[in-house]
User: Fold this.
Amino acid sequence: MHKNLNHYSEINAYQFVTFRTKDSIDDFLLRLNTLKYSSESKKQQAIDEYCDTSKAGRYLNGEIICCIKTYLISLEPEYLKLIALSVMPNHVHVLFVQNHDLAKTMQKIKGHLARLINKKLNKQGEFWTRNYYDTAIRDKRHFDTTYNYIKNNATKAKLTDAENRFYGIYE
Assistant:
């Protein structure tokens, strides 16, 4: 059974969004609904930790990292104000201020990037999972925690190209 997440969307709100390659969804992620977590954030933490080490759907490397960063930056200022992003091998974390409805912004991001990356990889079809994880930033502490998580994610995962995978406006 596929459960759709509820998304919070408010213009000028800070959003933390994670989206994954479709091929990264394997047995562990399919079993998530049968596993018990004390909260959605604990469940998301387990997913992120798993995806950081999973070999499934690891297409986001080399020049594709640059393509993702360049495209997200190009959406400023019309669609969003980009604060930080981390391009992991099979998922992307983005912190931004939304200037449009969140669903419209994510459709723009994922749709264009899917076409671009599929072309570069000589692939066809769905590239990203249909859904994405999002959370509105509640306060300064939440913002700082999220920014630092994004900044350190590739390093924590021991990726040799970690510094290339991060973009942040405070660096």
